[in-house]
């Protein structure tokens, strides 16, 4: 008799990365409220690569990842002691 070992194939990688289960999208009014910045300031910072870029949701709808906005805010807090500007 022969013992034949058959292993199951490795699971395929997901088509999309699995986001942090606590991740959520923020729309512009909420981003403005959280950061205390105006709409024009947010878009100015984005144009200078100094603020997280928006994520297209379809059509003209965009949002920001809460984790990216929170990380930007944390970076600004830590930068205040170093005397850095945005």
UniProtKB/TrEMBL annotation:
Known Pfam families for this protein? Answer: Phage_AlpA
Please give the name of this protein. Answer: AlpA family transcriptional regulator
Q: Which organism is it from?
A: Enterobacter sichuanensis
Upper lineage: Bacteria, Pseudomonadati, Pseudomonadota, Gammaproteobacteria, Enterobacterales
